[in-house]
Design the sequence.
């Protein structure tokens, strides 16, 4: 599959060049389209692999309003070809559903050969789900496609028309918005993508409270929020000697002790925007706030697995625990992920089947009625709206486990990447960021001093033991004060070794250095394995823009007081 | 204790300045002396805290042979004062055994007030062990003192003579060398300190074999190698409900299953020499080879603790397992360290009471007959010549656990350090280094390509998943090939998650870039928590020079072939 895709990728580059010759405006339009035509929220970012940096400017120009001439070119091309388009049957279209046979799709009666586009589709090979059929149901799911530029892009790939009879037979297009029952969200959130919903709070709100209020907790959905009826909810547990176990919500709450853990969740893409500044990556352009901290309560996964027959025999044949969400796309594919079995069954792993967040039922955006909370592990494995648990010899086969959420060398690009060569991200590396002041802020000289605040956290239960802060770009360092509880409350007891699941908030107040006109504020955290954050972004850059944990830098200007002038 | 020492440190700086005024040559001599006068091997490095960089050159000049004039100055001073020296009784000397009362010592009938020297003693406050008494037994232990420059330095602190009667009463000086029964060592080792013995293999030997031959395995002793009779050896296990348990070597071997683990040990000071290049630190000037990999066999510590009554009740009151070595100094103080209890008792922790290394009895230098092997944890906790195990609510109170082997911010110096503020190093951060080519090597252009080799490892059982190598100082990166077994042998099965105790050897062969005259080779490793090595040394510099894991850099010159000129 991978190597097939790789071959095609190379073939496609050739095809793209060919089509460029035929159609001079195509490259610019393609650049624009790949920014907009996306099959998932995570992939919304512009994808410039096949294009040099100058393309970005072209695309920006397009968006700024110079699209008319290009659109003319397209329409001209279209008009030229329209008469010649052959008529295809649905059967003929359906035969083109693989990279080998070509990838055809239909849209509003048109037939399109998008083979050459698959490799440059920002949403990856998920585009193949639509192969041989209609685009409409997918575009309804991934609303980012509903834009004029995407339609223009599509038109460049037109190869024919669907015959009238088959067009009539197509299922009436589901015009209702699959996101129509998504919950309301707090207006303070900064939206990175609306459908599916992805948003982060303003950074300065993060350091206001040790436990992030649920409404402000970053949201990272891959699909529409499913509507789950708590009365009929059933959790399936499979792969254990006791045979499949089915638990109602009530049973989950009453058959197992309720366990509470304060744990920070972080998206693998947190701080991706800093990688984008080095070189464009594929994914949502998260700032520094795709991380939040909450108190979670629920049954221990360990207890549920033991009740379903987990024992040493299972440990000998199984290595992973897979989770399936109830959120699904039009093909019925659910969100999925897995974690190592030893994390799931460890007494010290604290993995929860959580039904409460911050003392209340889980909000709809956070997995109501039940989600997995895997402390110390990347957000993507903390599956929401949990429907099924499978103990298995294998990892989850989902796209997100196998072909996403992995780290690569900065030298690896989309031509050379082999997703099998890297492990799925589980524990995250040490992280910290400055939540206030904001980059570009201005401080009055008369204030005399400056308070810098931020968060620090490390994966795998490794406690952050120090945060160093520099005001001069890393030349000299001071040690920040940290806290592990709400302001004014007594600090919580130190966590047992290896179970520091919650972040620490830190701050430092330093006098403004005399004579300085600008402060180059930098922070870096150290965890109790004495892992440090890398100095710079470029050497950890990776094509998916994950694991962005270089020193965080914020520049602040000092304004001299007028009275002193 | 700490704050007392801090106060004194400041007082001493004042005193040093005073003595400088009195004796113009003193600073240079002091700088020389602190390089040489040391109370432990780890502390042999020159300590320049109170001195600017220019002192280093002065010291180097001294060593290169310009000492005569200075020595004259000293002798002149000595001669001037000799007549005036008062006579003290041993009782009077003994009254000066603290920082508050002054620190006096005797040496060959002279009485010395070394109060001002305590704070700048490279061996730390261990010098206080000699307070009020004779230096001779200590200098016999720490042979680094037996040098003329040290004697000259001492003479500057002379305040009197011991009365003849008390001099006669001093115990006959133990002239036998406490290191006389240290084992023979392989001549290939690069000796950092002879007594106690500290040595590392040449780097290129390291990457020759996946399992380091015991003779080449780096040696890091804190004290003389104790002579242990295996027939009468007894291991004490204390702090458990079953009461103290005593095990003979035979019992350890027969009562508990033999368990074998391949584990890499690394000294906290590995690669310290790179920190010394940024700013002088305190400690042995290790290169990149204070790390080695071996196969260890022995009883599981977990099994022994269970036999001694370990259970959930103990887990509720105890947090640490302390180890005491049989190696001791003249006061009877043994080497000691501790690890967290959960690591010691975990089935997945693989902590061994090892009696074999690479399939043979432990060599004398590596802890014969029994040592602790704590996979994934800094060498210093892998206590050799193990005599006693104590399960306790507290960490080891030893110097090495409390006031050494901890990491601090680069902004922390000996005036501001608070050893209580940092956790004792346990798990080490991700590490890698280039073993070949050596820095400064020359490659012929005609060879066409270059092979770079090295090792990579991470603490806490985190598997190294990738090594990136750059030939252009970090601008572009390639991924190295890794191996986890001897060359030509089948690779071992992947370790279970969290139990990757052994390093990986890596190599990469790359064509020589056309036109390049120099290659700036850099390596950096990534572990499966996706922790990366920091880019540069200065921001992780710390006053003890531990945890040196920045990118490793080696520069190589390309020699154009004469035939081509």
Sequence:
């Amino acid at each position: 599959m991978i190597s097939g895709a790789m071959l095609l990728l190379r073939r496609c580059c050739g095809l793209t060049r060919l089509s460029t010759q035929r159609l001079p405006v195509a490259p610019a339009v393609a650049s624009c389209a790949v920014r907009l035509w996306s099959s998932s929220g995570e992939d919304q970012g512009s994808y410039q692999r096949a294009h040099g940096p100058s393309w970005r400017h072209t695309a920006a120009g397009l968006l700024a309003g110079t699209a008319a001439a290009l659109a003319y070119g397209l329409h001209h091309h279209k008009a030229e070809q329209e008469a010649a388009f052959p008529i295809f049957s649905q059967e003929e279209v359906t035969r083109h559903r693989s990279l080998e046979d070509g990838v055809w799709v239909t849209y509003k009666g048109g037939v399109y050969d998008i083979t050459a586009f698959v490799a440059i589709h920002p949403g990856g090979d998920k585009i193949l789900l639509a192969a041989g059929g209609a685009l409409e149901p997918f575009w309804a799911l991934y609303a980012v496609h509903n834009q004029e530029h995407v339609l223009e892009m599509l038109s460049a790939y037109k190869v024919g028309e669907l015959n009238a009879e088959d067009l009539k037979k197509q299922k009436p297009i589901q015009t209702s918005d699959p996101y129509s029952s998504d919950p309301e969200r707090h207006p303070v959130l900064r939206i990175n993508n609306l459908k599916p919903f992805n948003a982060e709070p303003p950074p300065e709100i993060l350091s206001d409270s040790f436990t992030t209020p649920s409404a402000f907790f970053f949201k990272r959905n891959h699909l529409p929020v499913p509507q789950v009826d708590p009365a009929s909810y059933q959790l399936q547990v499979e792969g254990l000697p006791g045979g499949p176990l089915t638990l109602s919500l009530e049973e989950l709450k009453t058959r197992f002790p309720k366990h509470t853990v304060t744990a920070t969740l972080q998206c693998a893409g947190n701080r991706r925007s800093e990688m984008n500044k080095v070189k464009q990556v594929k994914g949502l352009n998260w700032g520094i706030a795709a991380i939040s901290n909450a108190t979670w309560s629920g049954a221990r996964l360990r207890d549920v697995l033991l009740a379903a027959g987990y024992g040493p025999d299972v440990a000998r044949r199984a290595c992973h625990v897979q989770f399936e969400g109830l959120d699904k796309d039009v093909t019925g594919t659910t969100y999925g992920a897995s974690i190592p079995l030893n994390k799931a069954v460890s007494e010290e792993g604290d993995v929860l089947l959580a039904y409460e967040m911050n003392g209340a039922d889980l909000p709809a955006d956070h997995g109501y009625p039940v989600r997995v909370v895997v402390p110390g592990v990347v957000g993507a494995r903390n599956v929401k709206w949990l429907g099924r648990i499978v103990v298995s010899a294998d990892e989850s086969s989902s796209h997100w486990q196998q072909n996403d959420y992995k780290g690569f060398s900065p030298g690896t690009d989309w031509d050379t990447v082999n997703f099998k060569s890297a492990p799925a991200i589980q524990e995250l590396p040490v992280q910290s960021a400055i939540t206030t002041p904001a980059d570009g802020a201005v401080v009055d000289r008369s204030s005399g001093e400056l308070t810098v605040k931020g968060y620090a956290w490390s994966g795998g239960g490794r406690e952050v033991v120090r945060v160093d802060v520099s005001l001069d770009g890393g030349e000299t360092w001071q040690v920040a004060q940290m806290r592990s509880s709400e302001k004014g409350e007594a600090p919580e007891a130190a966590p047992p070794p290896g179970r520091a699941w919650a972040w620490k908030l830190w701050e430092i107040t330093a006098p403004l250095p005399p004579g300085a006109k600008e402060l180059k504020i930098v922070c870096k955290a150290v965890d109790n394995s004495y892992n440090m954050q890398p100095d710079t972004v470029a050497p950890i850059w990776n094509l998916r823009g994950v694991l962005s944990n270089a020193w965080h830098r914020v520049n602040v200007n000092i304004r001299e007081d007028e009275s002193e002038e």
